[in-house]
Design brief:
The protein contains 11 helices and 2 strands, in the order αααααααααβααβ. By secondary structure, it is an all-alpha fold. The longest helix is centred in the middle third of the chain and has 46 residues. It is elongated, with a radius of gyration of 52 Å. About 10% of the residues are buried.
């Protein structure tokens, strides 16, 4: 218990010492921890994984989105597309729904234009997503597929010659078709004239001879079949045979008469009267109407 050097310190004992760096270290930790947490949340947000409102977790909880995922698992890709589109109607900024639609149109239900649209919307909403590079590659692939379906393929010399031969053959067939159409038109007009002539002849007196009832015509020279084309025998109309000469008596309908009464009067049948008068209405006879009576 001696005193040393007048310092007033008791030998064998040390005064209580405070740690030199304990207080600054505690203060350092107090601001490091919130900074690290803020940095971590910032990184999560930039990577597209924010669990807050509007993030992928919230988007994927949407009922239509969940239905779409279930249909993808059951390989109902058309139904999945419909479900994801409904999810976009509920939330037009659903990047998750855009990505699923882009993938479906890219891989399962090929539609490169639709795939490009939804992939681009996904990148607009999640520009720093982890799969952004892969999505950009798929957009490029879809655009190349569209270009192949629009731009013509390179033509080899042999294929070019074949195209030229086919074009020449097409022109030749068109020219031959035009000639045949002209010939068919001339033939149709000639047939129409012949039929009209026969009708005019048949409307003459009933006692004409069969030779007077005949007719003939020739196809005009300009209507000859085209040379080098298909050949067929031109139709030939034979003279019409003279109708059998049948004499008819006539009866003028009187008030109150019916067809059956007229038939009984002339000892014939209603059917025979109707055959002798085509187009007659047995229920609407007109007074003064003249009816042909069949010969006996």
């Amino acid at each position: 218990m001696d005193k040393a050097g007048g310092t007033g310190l008791v030998r064998g004992t040390l005064p209580a010492q405070q740690p030199v760096h304990s207080l600054p270290l505690m203060r350092h930790c107090e601001w490091i921890t919130p900074a690290l947490l803020a940095t971590g949340w910032m990184l999560i947000g930039l990577s597209g994984c924010t669990p807050g409102p509007g993030g992928p977790l919230e988007e994927q909880k949407e009922p239509h989105y969940r239905v779409g995922k279930a249909r993808v698992n059951s390989m109902d890709y058309t139904g999945a597309i419909e479900a994801f589109q409904r999810a976009l109607e509920v939330n037009p900024r659903s990047a998750s729904a855009h990505f699923e639609l882009g993938w479906l149109y890219d891989v399962k239900v090929p539609d490169p234009a639709a795939a490009v649209y939804h992939y681009q919307k996904y990148l607009q909403l999640r520009p720093r997503a982890d799969n952004a590079d892969i999505v950009r590659q798929r957009i490029l692939a879809c655009k190349q597929e569209l270009a192949r379906s629009v731009l013509p393929l390179p033509i080899s010399p042999s294929l070019q010659r074949e195209f030229e031969q086919l074009a020449e053959e097409n022109r030749r067939l068109k020219s031959e078709l035009a000639r045949w159409q002209n010939y068919a038109g001339d033939l149709t007009r000639a047939l129409s004239n012949a039929v009209a002539s026969s009708r005019t002849t048949s409307s003459g007196p009933l006692n004409q001879s069969s030779s007077d009832m005949g007719f003939s015509f020739a196809v005009p020279t300009q209507a000859a079949p085209p040379a080098g084309g298909l050949s067929f025998t031109s139709p030939r109309l034979e003279p019409a045979s003279a109708p059998s000469q049948t004499t008819f008596r006539t009866h003028e309908v009187q008030p109150g008469e019916t067809l059956s009464r007229i038939a009984r009067r002339y000892r014939t049948t209603v059917q025979a009267l109707m055959e002798a008068n085509p187009g007659i209405d047995p229920h609407r006879l007109r007074i003064g109407q003249k009816l042909r009576l069949p010969g006996r």
